[in-house]
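ugh finaly. both done.
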Amino acid sequence: MSSGERHGRPVPPRAPGRYVPARGVYTEEARLRRLSWLRSVTGAALDSLHHTRLDAAALTGNIEGLVGTVEIPVGVAGPLLFHGTHVQGEVYAPMATTEGALVSSATRGALAVTMAGGVSTHALSQAMTRAPVFAFSRLAGAARFASAVVQHLGDLRTAVGQVSRHAVLVSVEPVVLGRTVHLRFRYTTGDASGQNMTTACTWHACQWILRQPYLVADGELESFLIEGNTSGDKKASAQAVAEGRGIRVAADCLLPAGIVERVLRTTPDELVGGYRHITAGAVHSGVLGSHANTANMVAAIFTATGQDIACVHESGSGQFVLERTPDGVYASMTLPGLALGTVGGGTHLPTQRELLAAMGCAGPGSAARLAEIIAGFALALDLSTVSAAVSGDFVGAHERLGRNRPPHRNGVPRRTVPPAAAERRTDGPATPAPREPGPAAVPHPAPGHDRAAPSPGEP
């Protein structure tokens, strides 16, 4: 068949100038050529894309058709004091976002938790899944295959080991749906998110399966797909919430009543009462898990650190819990599956690499550390968000910090928060309702940290 034919039919020639030029070429010259082409076909100036700090030659595994880069503001939330399995001491979190009030709210929650003694965190487990599907002619063939394939876990591990030194096949679980078998491969992947890694490993393991006549008899198998959509890849699902896909991590803290009143500007009873209402609403509307806005924290840190941003859809589910205690409030956050890594993907890009290093998330075990940091700050953010909703400060904070134009009074633009006070403000009202907060214990700094703990009078 000639190059001008497809399935025996003539193929019309490509219209000149219609297709992106220099495809597959990773040089600065090729990038500028594509940018010039895009200007010509759209009529847009695209001046902001002309310069980039990224080396086009280093992006071969990250993007195709490169024309430029997009800048996203990065703010810093914290400090938040950790007493975790993989992270101890005060940590600041980089948050890439364009949502005003988000960093301020996270910082307020972090202040409350730190003043109360800090947050405990623990990375519970890791599991990355890939789920190919085998379609047989009848149920009998599918059932026989499902029973037999699980007996060859050792052989499948050998096939996986020929592809990757980092992926470890933990289990293979067949799920029979009619005449099809969805074969759920579960891996640990070290400090990598492992989605591409496990895809390649699963493909080669399935090629071994297809070569075994005692597993796949002649005439029984009709088709095979590398992903049958039961892994939960980039999709929020009840299965992912229950079993986890990525790193499962939990965080908790105790907040004395005085800190709830002074920093979060509500009372323990009001805070827990409001939490019950939003939990009931989550159940009624079918939300996976129950939380205020964990996806905000996950998305902000994922973007800042070079994660696969589409995984926010599955990683943003969480279970936020508040309970009344005799002295205040118990709070916890469980994130069932953070699909993240500190190697691979976009983590090698200069800014993303520097921000990971700033959090101490480089080297062995750093993926679990990053997961614990995200869980701790997600807990802090939900505490602040629910408190703002309960106290009536939620809209005011967004009006003050989340608007694209300055507020006006009598037609004159003004700053609501003076520059000197802006860094010390929390998401509370300008003049909080009068209360008599009880004394709040101030934690001592973690060993090795010289920064003075915030005083009880700090807003």
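ok and the 2nd:
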Amino acid sequence: MAQPNMTMVDANAVPVSSTAAGVPATGGRISTDTARHSRRRRLSMSMPFHGRKHHDVFGQDTNPHRRKHFGKPSFSGFQPHFMAGLGEFIGTTMFLFLAEGGAKTAQLSVSAAQTDTATPLSNETIMFIALSFGMSLLVSAWMFYRITGGLFNPAITIALWLVGVLTTRRAVVLFFSQILGGIAAAGLVLGLTPTNSVSSVTTTLQPGINITQGFLIEMLLTSILVFSVLMLAVEKHRATYLAPVGIGLTLMAAHLFGAVWTGCGMNPARSFGPAVVARQFNSDHWIYWIAPICGGILSVVYFSFLKLLKYNSVVLDQDSDTEVTGLKPIHTRVWNLVRHGENPSALNPESSTHYDSKARAEFDQEQREVFEEREQIRAGMMDKPVFDGHANTAAEGRMAQSVPGHGSPVSTGSTLAHTTSNNTGKGPILPK
């Protein structure tokens, strides 16, 4: 009959299960945290239908590993939207304050301290206004580019919402932030300049420009501006970090044309802000809302059409590290036509974007054959150079191996040849 195992048990010993579970040793008693947790569990079991789903009666999440925002992006909280809205408000205020202040300064014949008389727009004035808006957008967008994207324009916000860059909530927050920023910028220009008016920076159609002409000018100029944003900032490439430069120069070029005819609004926040501060809404003010939005939609349609047609298959590898041409040189094409009957307009299959499937398959097959031939030649070579992995062996003089049945050594590298012929008795020559 087997004898039972008898072991001595210490009365003060702590149970292993409680220590392994991370519960403090309390002489066999349940800790306060464990008792509270058990009570919560009993209450949850007794009251299965409580107020919030996935939470107990104390408001604690019963599953800490549960996904908090199922199916929603991580930026759907209040803090990211607030930060984006605040950034757009400050950025739009900064941009339009510099731009409208420069435009107002440009229309004064002499310094504001001497007289407040404004002059008609001359070539110098137009250049001054264009530089004010272009450079203001450039520096402001570059500063806020990594914070909010540096939009500062409700028309651009709507365009990015249409292409899927912005969510609906984010687009609404940015839209109203930009409108408020335009009002704040006009108020700063009014309060910090000697003249008690901002009528010189309001946008209105000039004499000789009818409603249709003004609408088309504003729509097309805004379309060009939004398209520059889509191609330089939305489409990622190696020069994306320079997008504010190209967008600012686009706004400057647009003002060189449109400033003298429509005031070159191109931005509902830019036109609405001075109108609110000046308390002056012209009969054509609706143009500066509808035309920029239509221009943004037009650029989105064109941009989407280019994406559908895969526009990047037309140009020659713009983001390539090496120069790759789609067509072969003219003398090569003429020779291939005479010798092989090849189409002289055939594209170079070495290009990463300018070949069809058949040309690519032929090119890959040629490269594979060349590689296999090179490997066969390399395997058949008897005199191989010494690599770094053989340096220690060469230093010890054991690069020669005897063939079974023969007493003469067989060379396995150039080091042995130099050692036995030209450096007898002086040890092996190590590779440089």
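summary for the 2nd one i guess: The chain is about 55% helix and 0% strand.
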